Amino acid sequence: MKGPPLTRRNFGSLVAAGITLPSIAGAASGQSDTTGQEAKIDDRAGGTEIHTPEKSMGIYVGSDLTEDGSTILAGFGHEPSSHWLEIVPHQEHDSDATWTVGVTENADIPGELTEIPQAEETYKYISSMYSFYAGFPPPLTNGGLNEQGVAARDIWSPSRPELVEMAEAEAPQTGPQYSDLAKAAMERASTAKEAVEIVGGLMDEHGYSTYGGNSHLFADEDEGWVFINFAHPDGDLWAAERLGSDEVRVSYPGYIQEFPVEHEDDPDYMGSEKLVSFAKGQGWWDGEGDTLNLLEVYGAGQFPAEADEYFYPEFYQGARSPPDREQDLRDMSPVSLEDALVWIRDPRWSTDFQGYGQVAHIRPDTRDELQTLWTTVTSSAGTPFVPIPIATEEVPLEFEQHRYMTADAASNFLDKNWQHQEATRYATREFKRLLYLTAEHPEEFYTDVTGAIEGFEQDLLAERDEIESEAISHYESGEDQKARDLITENVRTRLLESLSLGMELADEVQATTREEFGFRRPERQEAPGETAPGTSQPMAEGGWGDMVYVYDDATHEFPREHGSFTESESTETPTTTEQEATSTETPTETDTATTETDAPGFTALTAGAGAGAAGYLLKRHVDSDD
């Protein structure tokens, strides 16, 4: 199928068909889109509604541009799903072992699962898992950080409509999908370049199951690579570009622009065999020049911020200009770990859509076991980052899978095997509660909530050297298990403390809301013969642009220093006895979330700026009335 040469294409042409979506009003601060018009959606999926392809983010900052010489790979995913933390252990497999890849008939573009050979050895990695995206089978992952010091991010990258139509025409599709490929990179790659070779090799050999185009960012301590999976069903359209230690990249979406025609011997590029010839054969590239612009030839042709009309609120879609965001990073250099935490938390993109936040901090001359993934279990706008080193052996059950927002959870009762896990508080749900409460009045609560969260994070940052020094001492003495126990207990304690903080903050915001504003009930959607109150009607009828967010023009700051909203003078610290009396304490298997741990080298952070900060929220509003 040949098509006309590609010029500039509107993102609306990449989403589904014949559906008129309402203009988008801000869910929290009254912000609205600039057009005030209805967004028209062109046909591309046979009438099946698919939301606009504006999703996750990945950022790469090379080691020459960071404060401590580390490589930073950070980002988040956008999935309407449950999310949880997972530590996948190092494993050995039989030489004839296989693993299941691909998608089922339930995917947006239907497919069939297949079996492909498993590696005989798979590496340990830390990841955020989730249960649903585009109908793909769970559990799903976008990457994370592995024991070799390789980090991965998975980011949407919409292919041109003709490619998506080819995939639809050849359904059922087969071959690994984006999560399978991210998983393979984590389990098999010892460098970022090797991750590219693994993912490209799997696509070449087994094909590719797509939802419409995708990308990856890979990084190690020396370099990064951006990888684009175009939507061709045979899996033989992919490209990769090296990112040096003196470069930054913002995939928002993932993209590659100028790509050399003669790339086979270029150390900075890799691509599938037919990448160039297919474009010329389709008439999408005229064959002139030494390079072709892959964003124009195979991609969407423009970035979301360049669209003539916005589907999402202006602050959100207008920020989706990778060149502008890359200039922001260059202007910020040298970039610190704290800068990366603030970046992922920025309310322009840290909305209810943000399923989790990750910052991989890959440091030179650091033991592999101590390379660290800072992570939030859901939207960073209302969740503290907690550092999880590779040495960590497990996380508390509160941060693992639960039924809230899990795909198909309502289709049956709970299996007995999971009753204890499900009985624990679900961290994702608790932090979502804080986000939703804050988003109703962001001008009143956002800076206070963020200040409390970042006060807690500052305590975590301050203890890293001491924790790592003690772990290194154990490793150097041949006491590897003691080192792992130390790190695991620290992670367990800090995660549970972060949960206690989130619950306390939510209770404070709720109490203040009840006293000062009252609670707003959802408006009832009128329909002929409908009798159900608004509180019982469907909760997701407003369209994808009707998002929950905490962005507010009056409070937004960029660039912003980490902790800038944290009060310098901490409120009175609650004692252990006082904390045990609060209703927000989270139940744990050992009940040590807010008490001093027996593990040497660290104490509970109940006395830090973060843990004491929640109490000032209600007090601040009461004082302001005097």
TrEMBL record:
Residues 514-543, 559-611 are annotated as: Disordered. GO terms for molecular function: cysteine-type exopeptidase activity; dipeptidase activity. One of its GO terms (biological process) is proteolysis. It comes from the Archaea. Residues 566-600 have a biased composition (Low complexity). Residues 514-527 have a biased composition (Basic and acidic residues). PANTHER family: LD30995P, SECERNIN. This is Dipeptidase. The lineage of its organism: Archaea, Methanobacteriati, Methanobacteriota, Stenosarchaea group, Halobacteria.
